[in-house]
Specification:
single chain, mainly alpha, Four Helix Bundle (Hemerythrin (Met), subunit A), globular
Length: about 170
């Protein structure tokens, strides 16, 4: 497994990027540690599966950075929850773990480029998710980081229940 990022990376944005990369890598390692049947089996009372959670994270990151901060048009920003932020996460049988991880990797490149080129004080565009009262990039980073941290903890529990490896 990847180790926690070191201190002294040269700036706040570099730390955000490093921690997001760490959490993404943990999601990939945890998901790849499970056989297909366990990826698609709900292991907690709320009913989500490890594959659904991984897919949710890929869509969540795109919603916050691409649709939210950059204000770009995104087809189906709530694709992980069937068109509604409150709907259950569902992964069609035709979507594989490789499909989900490819989306996550694609988003990683977008996020890293954004963090390398944009001041954290810059406000989000008002052409996407944030039509009024746009947050700055720092706020978006904190939100995405906390969502990854929370859900990687959930995934860790699910993988343990499925008999997979535990810990970071």
């Amino acid at each position: 497994m990847r180790s926690v990022p070191e201190h002294g990376l040269g700036g706040e944005a570099a730390h955000f990027a490093a921690y997001l990369a760490f959490y993404r890598a943990t999601v990939v390692e945890k998901a790849r540690s499970l056989p297909e049947a366990e990826l698609r089996r709900p292991l907690v009372p709320s009913g989500w599966t490890p594959l659904e959670l991984a897919r949710h994270l890929a869509f969540m990151e795109r919603r916050w950075f691409v649709w939210g901060f950059l204000g770009e048009h995104v087809d189906d920003p709530w694709g992980d929850s069937q068109g509604s932020p409150d709907a259950a996460w569902l992964v069609p049988a035709s979507v594989s773990l490789d499909d989900v991880l490819a989306r996550l990797t694609e988003q990683e490149a977008r996020t890293e480029a954004l963090l390398a080129s944009t001041p954290l004080e810059q406000l989000a565009a008002t052409t996407g998710r944030f039509r009024t009262d746009p947050p700055d990039l720092r706020y978006v980073c904190f939100h995405v980081l906390q969502e990854y941290a929370r859900h990687v903890g959930h995934l860790d529990v699910a993988v343990e229940l499925a008999g997979g490896p535990v810990g970071e």
